[in-house]
Amino acid sequence: VQLVESGGGMVQPGGSLRLSCAASGFIFSSYDMNWVRQSPGKGPEWVSHISSGGGSTAYADSVKGRFTISRDNAKNTLYLQMNSLKPEDTAVYYCNADSFWGQGTQVTVSS
Q: In this predicted model, what pLDDT tens digit does every residue of 46-79 receive, in sequence order?
């Protein structure tokens, strides 16, 4: 099983980034997926969830209206479109399926 995040980087406040998570080694289309983030000195924070078929999504209040989760089951890939980024969005972002975790991708929002 492998989950590989990409797309992180440094962006100014108000900017946008699109994270991707490439999945392999399991039946991606059968699993609900999550994005979880962790900032320095803080515990993990759940960000967003999407059902296995993509028809149901949920967001933390802190990102609702700014982030959009999606998936392409044909490409075994999970996405997180992040708009109107704020400094408090700075964190390592992880994709998660059941007990499987990626290595994370760093997002830094700073002027």
A: 999 999 999 999 999 999 999 999 999 999 999 9
Residue 18: exposure state from Cβ atoms within 10 A (0-12, 13-18, ≥19): middle
Q: What is the pLDDT of residue 46?
A: 98
44: which 2 tokens? 């993990």
- Contact present, 9 and 82 (Cβ < 8 Å): no
**Using CA atoms, how far apart are residues 45 and 40, in angstroms rounded to an integer?**
12
What is the number of alpha carbons within 13 Å of residue 93 lying toward its C-beta? 29
Q: Is the dihedral of CA 22, 47, 16, 102 positive or negative?
A: negative
Location of structure tokens 């989950």: 3
Amino acid identity, position 63: V
Tokens standing for residue 29: 């289309």
Cα(106)–Cα(37) distance, integer angstroms: 9
